[in-house]
Design a protein that fits this description.
seven-stranded mixed β-sheet, 5 helices, globular, GNAT family N-acetyltransferase, Acyl_CoA_acyltransferase, acyltransferase activity, transferring groups other than amino-acyl groups
Length: about 180
């Protein structure tokens, strides 16, 4: 049985990071220490869903000005394909007051297509806008990504405001002068 999502307890961080390592390639995650340092950021939160007294899944997000940005979302590999991901995502969306945005790889592989389909089934729209995710760990490459959003597609201006804020606050990359959003 799964519990309702709740804020992660500090002593659960190791379980969360293990799921993160099992679920994301090195290019899509920070080092353990860099990821853990985010816990001191007021805008960064991790919620978990328990399964049999352990972390079954987690969702790490940023509270931005106009959006919630899901940076990482994953279930324990042993618990996948049992509805846990949909449950935690739906609970999260029902409890949020803002539009939610996340990144996905372009639909060039079967896995990317399945992931996009999962998010569409859970109320997200695939936007035609994207960008290259800045490097999270030194020595890695940028990653081309598309943006998905709850509540319908983003307008170009909404996308630009989201991109500028996520690049500045999450990726710590400078924003072009003249941004109308910050």
């Amino acid at each position: 049985m799964y519990s309702i999502i709740r804020n992660m307890k500090k002593d659960e961080y190791s379980e969360v990071y293990q799921i993160l390592e099992d679920s994301f390639p090195a290019t899509e995650r920070r080092t353990r220490q860099a990821q853990q340092s985010l816990l001191n950021e007021p805008a960064y939160q991790i919620v978990v869903c328990e399964h049999e007294g352990r972390v079954g899944a987690f969702l790490a997000y940023w509270q931005l000005e106009d959006f919630l940005f899901i940076e990482h979302f994953a279930a324990n590999p042993k618990l996948r394909n049992h509805g846990l991901g949909g449950k935690i995502l739906q609970d999260f969306l029902q409890n949020s007051q803002q539009r939610t945005v996340l990144e996905v790889e372009p639909p060039e592989t079967e896995l990317a297509k399945r992931r996009i389909g999962f998010y569409i089934r859970n109320g997200f729209s695939l936007n035609r806008y994207g960008y290259k995710q800045p490097v999270l760990t030194e020595g890695q490459q940028t990653i081309p990504l598309l943006v998905m959003s709850s509540g319908g597609e983003l307008t170009l201006r909404e996308f630009q405001c989201f991109r500028d804020e996520v690049f500045q606050k999450v990726y710590h990359v400078g924003v072009k002068e003249g941004s109308l959003c910050l």
